[in-house]
Structures are given as C-alpha cells and as structure tokens.
Amino acid sequence: MKYKVLVGTALITLLTGCANQNPSTTWNESLIKAKAPVRMIKDNSFPDKKGVRYIENWAGVKGKSILNERYINMLYADIEKKCGYGKEQFIEAYIVQHTNNPTGNIIEEVWLFNDSKSLRDDKISGLTVYLEYDKKTDFTKGEIFGNCHTGKGMSFTFSD
C-alpha cells in the first residue's frame, strides 16, 4: 500500500514538477525516501531520438553483503516468514549504502530472490534490507522495505 501511495505521489510530482529538473531525479528522491528497492534510470536503448524513456532498475551496485552470518540468517528467516522465500531463493545483493559515522552505522542493501509470484518477466523480486546501528545505545534496528512480490517494472517516456 505504501508503495502505491509513493507511486501516485511521485507521478504527480513528476508531471507537475520543475521543467528544469531531470524527471528521474524527482522520481528517485521519492524512491530513496521510501527505501524502495528500485530506482529510475535513463533507458539508453530507447530508439526514439526525439524522446527519452526512464525504466526501473535495482537500486545500488552488485556487491557482497557486509552483514555477519547472524544478521543474514535473522533476515532470511524474517523474509521467509513475510514473503514465503528466503535463503534458498537468494540470488545476489546490491549495495545501496554502507555508512559509518560518529553516531553509528547504516547498512542499506537490495537483496534479490527467485520468486514464482513476482510479476516481473524474470520472476525476480527485490527487497531493501535496512539496518541502523546506534553506538550510544548499542542497538541495531533492522527493517525490510518493498513488496514481497515485485510488480512489473514501470517506465515513463517523454517526447519533444
């Protein structure tokens, strides 16, 4: 539900936004704020030279999770309970941010899974795994963002 509200808000912002701003920037600001597992990128394979198309892509860059085995197993268990898939269906991680600052650490990754219920053609679903460690309290808060069964990717086309 949160994702549908995000899509509606972002679409209105995109259509009524600043003419000087890159449309994907406006859209991505909303996606980043919602910790969505996708971002909008320019589709360089779009054949129309008088227009531009933006498509969904997984957030971050391919990489290896820096989480220890304890946290990984806890997250797999939570994801399996919530979505019906887990460690056995895991494909790869995309690193959005690994930040170490004076007050604590932030780990944000997108984990991809084989998912027969995904609406994407490739039957892959992605979730954002977000952990925030507070050095003052010595507590790690973890959350999972995104729909269990990723929908068909959105695209926007703008023409002159």
Order of helices and strands: HHEEEHEEEEE
The gross shape turns out to be globular
Distance between the amino and carboxyl termini: 34 Å
Rg over CA atoms: 17 Å
Give the DSSP E fraction (strand runs of 2 or more residues): 35-45%
Q: Count of helical segments? A: 3
Mean of pLDDT: 87
Classification by helices and strands: alpha+beta
Total strands: the figure is 8
Strand order of the largest sheet: 3-4-5-6-7
Largest sheet: 5 strands, antiparallel
Q: Are there runs of 5+ residues with pLDDT below 50, and where?
A: 1-6, 12-18
**Helical fraction:** 25-40%
What does the model show?
This protein is of the alpha+beta class and 160 residues long. It has helices at residues 2-16, 23-33, 69-83; strands at residues 38-42, 51-58, 61-63, 90-101, 104-114, 124-134, 139-145, 155-159. The chain has a five-stranded antiparallel β-sheet with strand order 3-4-5-6-7, with no helix packed on it. The protein has a three-stranded antiparallel β-sheet with strand order 1-2-8, with helices on one face. The chain is globular, with a radius of gyration of 17 Å. This is Lipoprotein. Keywords: Signal. It comes from Arcobacter suis CECT 7833.
